[in-house]
Amino acid sequence: MIKRKLEEQLKSQFHISSFRPGQEEIIQDIMDGHDVLAILPTGSGKSLCYQLPASLSEGLTIVVSPLISLMEDQVKQLKAIGFKAVEALNSFMDPREKRRVLQQLDQYKLIYLSPEILQQKDIIGRLKQITVDLLVIDEAHCISQWGHEFRPDYLRLGDVLKQLHDPAVMALSATATKEVQHDIIASLDRPDIVRHIYPMDRENITFTVKKVENDRQKQDTITRLLKRYRVPTLIYFSSKRKTEEVAAVLSKHLPSHRIAFYHGGMDQLDRVAIQQQFMNDQLDIICCTSAFGMGINKQDIRLVLHYHFPLQIESYLQEIGRAGRDGQSSVSLLLYSPGDEALPKSIIANELPQADDADQLFRTLYQLYLKEPQLPSTDKVLDLLEVTEIQWRFLHYQMEKHGMIKNNQLVFQKQDWEQSIREIKQFMIARAALKQRKLDEITSWIHEERCLREHLYKGFQNNYKSPTYACCSNCGFSFKNWVPEQTRAEKTIYSWETKLKKLFFIGDYDSETK
Length: 514
Description:
Keywords: ATP-binding, Helicase, Hydrolase, Nucleotide-binding
Number of helices: 20
GO biological process, one term: DNA repair
CATH class of the largest domain: Alpha Beta
Domain Helicase C-terminal: 221-369
Largest sheet: 7 strands, parallel
Radius of gyration: 23 Å
CATH superfamily of the largest domain: P-loop containing nucleotide triphosphate hydrolases
Helix content: 40-55%
InterPro entries: DEAD/DEAH_box_helicase_dom (IPR011545), DNA_helicase_ATP-dep_RecQ (IPR004589), Helicase_ATP-bd (IPR014001), Helicase_C-like (IPR001650), P-loop_NTPase (IPR027417)
Distance between the termini: 50 Å
Shape: globular
Number of domains: 3
Domain Helicase ATP-binding: 27-194
Oligomer: single chain
C-alpha cells in the first residue's frame, strides 16, 4: 500500500516515472520511522529521498545544508513543480521576511536551514513549538572531525536533536569513509541508524592523468582537446584568479566556443545566470572553482578537467561525479606539472590557525578579557587576532567546547585555560596532519602507475564496477580512440516537464576552494 502511494506521489508531485537505485529503499525506511545514514554517489538524486517523504508528512522536515545558494535553488525548483509548502531560512534574509516565515512555520512541510542559523535562540524556540518529523543533515561528513569538510557548527546538531525532542534523522553524504561514518553516528548518538551505503564508482567515467611541464603546456593541452571535442565541459581550478585568466586564453584560441568563468567572488546574480546558461546549452565550457556544479544536474557533461588538483580524493570524486550522468561515455582529465603541490599546501596552511601561532592568539584573547569579557563583533575579533572568519569559527567552537567562552563572553580560569590551550593545540596538529595525509593520498594517486580506477576507490569500497567504456590512461585509454556522444550536434527540444526533470535531480555540495 505504501509502495503504491510512494509511486503515485513520485509521478503526480515530482513528475518522475521511476525511482533511481537506492531511493525507494531509503524513503521506505524514513516512512517507517527509522533513522537513516545514506551514502550515495554524486548525481544519484539524494534530495528526493527527503523531499518525497516531506510532501506526504503531517509535520515539518528540516534540512540542514551548508550552502545558502543551493537551498534557494532547491526551494525555487520545488515551487516550480507545485510544492509550495517550502522555504529557506538563512542569516542574510530580510528581518521582516524571516519573522513572517517563523510565524507561519507550522504551515510548511519543508524548511531549509544553515547549521549556523540553527544556533539562534529564536529559531530553536520556534521549532520547539511545532512537530518536527525529520531532521535531514546534508553533507553529513561535515559532522566528522576527520571528514574532509569538517564544520564546527555541524557538531552541535546532536544537541539540536535533543532540543527538538529527538525527531527521526536522515544523514546524507556522497563521500564518507567508514571512519567518518562511525563519527557521524557517534556524534548524533543514533547507534541503531539504518545504513544505506551504495558504491560511489561511476563505470561510464574514464580516468586520465597527464603530466606536463608548466602552465603553458596545460593551456595548450586543454585548447587542443576542446578544439577536437566540442562537448559540455567543466574545468576546475583552486584559484579564482586563474579561472578568469584561463577563460580569457581559451576564448582567444577557441572563438567559436562559448566560455565563461565562475567562482565564489562573483556577484550572486552573475553566478545564477552562468548556471542557467550552462544548463540551457548556451555555454559550452565553464572555468570554475569547486562551487560550480553544486545543485546543477546537467546530464550530458562529457569532460571534467582539473587544471589544479583538489586537496583530497573526496573532493575529486564529487567534482568528476558531475560528468556523464546520462550514462554515456565521459572522461576526467587531471593535468599535473611539477610544483603543483604548493597551492593545496598553502590552502591547508590557511584553513585553521597554526598551532605555532596559538599561544599568541590566546595571549591576545586574554588581553581582551582583561578589558572586557564580552566578545566584540566578529569583524573586530578578526582584526585583533589577524585570522580569517573560518579560522575564528573553528577557534570559537573549540573555546566554547572547553568552557573558555560562554554566552559569547570570555571565561578565564588560569589552570583551565592552560590545559584547554594544550588540548586545542593538539587538535590543530592532528587536523593539520590529517589534511597532509589526504593531500599525500591524492598526490600518490596522481603518480600511480597501476590502474587509476582501482586505486581511486580503494579507500571507500572493496570492489569497483567494470567500466562500460574505457578504464583509465594507465590501462590503455587514449583520446585518439574516444568518440563521445555529440550532444551539441543534435539539439533536442524538451517539453517543460522534461526540463523540470533535468533541473530537479539536485547534485551534491562541496565547499569552494579559495
